[in-house]
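Re: duplicated header lines in exported structure tokens

Our pipeline writes sequence and tokens for each protein into one text file. With two proteins the header for the second block appears twice in some exports. Here is an export where it did not happen, for reference. First protein block:
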Amino acid sequence: QERFVESGGGLVQPGGSLKLSCAATGFSFDGEIMLWHRQAPEKAREWVATVFPAGATFYTDSVKGRFTASRDNDKNTVFLQMTDLRPDDTAVYYCQKDGSTTWGQGTQVTVSS
């Protein structure tokens, strides 16, 4: 059974940085495309980033140049390094295997002074 456990969120001031982690189990991680999503209060969940098995990445426009997604296939873990954080980055962040219908509990990121 697929499982995703996100961690690393917290409260940070505007302009600050956080690094999120997501431990994935229950499938062959190194062959799968991994995704990061987020859901802000009272908004629909939105795609943030894609990490391909060999490490290529794509990002939604609002985070380009500020967020960096990566993965460690030996540890079945995907990461999201977030810099220059803004208040509108406040959301619960989730990782997911492309095509999966399973979600983890997410990790809360709050950007506020």
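Second protein block, exported in the same file:
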Amino acid sequence: QVQLAESGGGLVQAGGSLRLSCEASGNIITINVMSWYRQASGKERELVAAHTRVGPTNYSDSVKGRFTISRDGPKNTVYLEMNSLEPEDTAVYYCAATGITTDTTDQGQVFIPGQFWGQGTQVTVSS
């Protein structure tokens, strides 16, 4: 299993900045993708940004040019730098990780692919 610990949410005025962090821990073999999603009240969860181990980073059109995703590989930590925040950015932000974990069973060591989620951190932008 993988545990994702998010931090950095809070209340900020429009135009301000916040930095979210998410550290993955557990029996990790590799994490190929670390992402940030968000879910506003009454809306579906949407992808905000994704960082792949190989390949480009991806951003939703609504945050391009304002948000930056980065990753500290050895620490399995992903960051989301959010600038020029708008009230429309208000949501619960979730960290997600896609990768492979390991476990020991009666048959020996097994490798388990999966996607894991954090508990979410609230970001509120006031106008």
